[in-house]
Design a protein that fits this description.
7 strands, seven-stranded mixed beta sheet, 181 residues, alpha+beta, globular, Aminopeptidase
């Protein structure tokens, strides 16, 4: 997966009439590497704090963010992946495999300067692959009602809105979504 590459042209790449068609050149500095990370890693914690701050800046109270602490991420055995561009961690996301073929996305964040460059796509692809390999049939998530870009992103990845599930039923700001695998 290459993050930061220009979007594909509608109808695919244009070919020249000459026999020497070349693939687009990709700058190695823009290559995105997604790999497992640990919640206690300092660079992971920096992104988790940035996520919490961004949610607070959107007007959500701490009770409305449903964030997982490092201890909760570890206790829930949340599979965390990070995206690195030029060696720098620029995104982090997790998935908690639960019972009865369910999993829930947890703590999904990409730094603002890397949004729209394919980093989030690479993260969600890695999480969905992990879920499929763990015999998950349905992936769920909760996001905030003001997170319109996030909801659009999840819709593009096959998630649909569903009634709020536990523990979000009483949260008026919660939007729940799910996707079958």
């Amino acid at each position: 997966m290459v993050c930061g590459a220009p979007p594909a042209q509608p109808g695919g790449p244009r070919r020249s009439t000459s026999a020497s068609y070349r693939s687009p050149v990709v700058d190695p500095a823009s290559a995105c590497v997604v790999e497992p990370v640990r919640a206690r890693d300092a660079d992971v914690q920096v992104l988790l704090v940035a996520l919490t701050a961004e949610l607070a800046g959107s007007g959500y109270t701490p009770e409305q963010t449903f964030g997982y602490s490092v201890e909760q991420l570890e206790a829930g055995r949340v599979h965390l992946v990070g995206a690195r561009v030029a060696g720098r961690l620029v995104g982090v996301a997790g998935i908690e495999v639960q019972v009865h073929g369910l999993a829930e996305l947890k703590r999904f964040f990409v730094g603002p300067e890397h949004r729209g460059a394919g980093v989030a796509d690479a993260l969600i692809d890695a999480l969905l692959a992990h879920a499929a390999g763990s015999h998950v049939r349905t992936v769920r998530l909760e996001t905030g009602d003001e997170q319109r870009a996030a909801m659009g992103f999840y819709r593009r990845h096959g998630f649909v809105r569903v009634p709020r599930f536990s523990p979000y039923e009483a949260s008026e700001t919660s939007v729940c979504m799910e996707r079958a695998l």
